[in-house]
Specification:
The chain has 63 residues and is an all-alpha fold. It has helices at 3-24, 30-46, 50-57. The chain has one domain. It contains three helices and no strands. Helix 1 (3-24) crosses helix 3.
C-alpha cells in the first residue's frame, strides 16, 4: 500500500473510533473527530500531514 492509502485508512479508523467513543464514553471525543477532519482539510491545501511524515519515516512507499 502507498502513503495515501494508509493515510485514508488511519484517518477513517480514527474518525470512526472517536465517534464510537463519543457515544459510549464521553461526548468530548467528538472534538478529536473534528481535529482529524480539520487536519485533513489543511493537508489538502498544504500537502503536508504529520501522519504522512511518520509513514515516510517508517518506510512506506510514495504513491
Amino acid at each position: 500500500m502507498t502513503i495515501n492509502r494508509y493515510l485514508h485508512l488511519i484517518a477513517g479508523f480514527v474518525i470512526v473510533l472517536s465517534v464510537i467513543l463519543s457515544q459510549i464514553h464521553s461526548p468530548y471525543w467528538i472534538y478529536f473527530t473534528a481535529f482529524v477532519g480539520l487536519n485533513l482539510m489543511q493537508s489538502a491545501f498544504t500537502n503536508w500531514c504529520p501522519m504522512m511524515t511518520i509513514l515516510r519515516k517508517l518506510g512506506v512507499k510514495e504513491g
